[in-house]
Amino acid sequence: HSADAQRTDLMTITRFVLNEQSKHPESRGDFSILLSHIVLGCKFVCSAVNKAGLAKLIGLAGETNVQGEEQKKLDVLSNDVFIKALISSGRTCILVSEEDEEATFVEPSKRGKYCVVFDPLDGSSNIDCGVSIGTIFGIYLIKEDHEPTVEDVLQPGKNMLAAGYCMYGSSCTLVLSTGSGVNGFTLDPSLGEFILTHPDIKIPKKGKIYSVNEGNAKNWDGPTTMYVENCKYPKDGSSPKSLRYIGSMVADVHRTLLYGGIFLYPADKKSPNGKLRVLYEVFPMSFLMEQAGGQAFTGNQR
Ligand code: AHG
Ligand code: MN
Ligand code: MN
Ligand code: MN
Questions:
Q1: Which of 5, 110, 141, 248 has the most CB atoms at less than 10 Å from its CB?
Q2: SS3 per-residue string spanning the chain
Q3: ipTM strictly over 0.90?
């Protein structure tokens, strides 16, 4: 019975990635090991996010923990966890995080061939009110013929080997692409495993939603203003679009992938290059969007 099979034959993220890798005979399982360390980081952050409200209450009794350390903010805590999990995988050589000013170069004895760029906690303005937040990551492969330098990570997004995000929302969902489509996995808390729940995600061809911080409209350029105006007052007689904006890129992109539409953070007078960070926010999300049959562009170029 197929219903039985669904309940008992669980496609975990580890099994899924091992299956994918077995199509490449040259693969030595390194990517699966790296991913299992990323997954561990996501599970940790998920559990920390779920306890965040409670931790605050405990925090009120004294802002310091038993060791006399000040309680770490969730984004800093998440960063520490990912940095340690990635180094201990033994498969990374350069780590670039939103929370660190400088790139981390892994010491030679623990070094591997992957570079990971990541935003450990995206949507931090939403932490204290319990709205969805996430983690974003992108993975590059370095050629093993030279000492790693920062140039190895300053590469176009299209050179990424894999990208993904984990959303800590009403459920914990990890969306991943290794360059052959996009798949979504949901954490089953009773098993502690991510199970394939959204196979081969494709963005709907047409969407009825636009997603943008309209509070910045005063500072937009002409074309952006005209575009958003047309979402509200379409000139071709079609229905106006709905507006949804969460303020966590992970959640806004996740909804866009599943329901269709457009998410934008246009440049404005305050941020002439836009607010989103290209390496660990825009590139991984663009990689996923393109892999799901969508588009990502600056306004002028891919
Ligand atoms: P972060 O919390 O990692 O610093 O990133 C926040 C980003 C992104 O998640 C979101 O799309 C955007 O900032 C929201 O910005 P506004 O509050 O300006 O709309
Ligand atoms: Mn972010
Ligand atoms: Mn962040
Ligand atoms: Mn930040």
A1: 248
A2: CHHHHHHHCCCEHHHHHHHHHHCCCCCCCHHHHHHHHHHHHHHHHHHHHHHHHHHHHHHHCCCECCCCCECCCHHHHHHHHHHHHHHHCCCEEEEEECCCCCCEECCHHHEEEEEEEEEEEECHHHHHHCCCEEEEEEEEECCCCCCCCHHHCCCCHHHCCEEEEEEECCCEEEEEECCCCCEEEEEECCCCEEEEEECCCCCCCCCCEEECCHHHHHHCCHHHHHHHHHHHCCCCCCCCCEECCCCCHHHHHHHHHHHCCEECCCCCCCCCCCCCCHHHHHHHHHHHHHHCCCCCCCCCCC
A3: yes
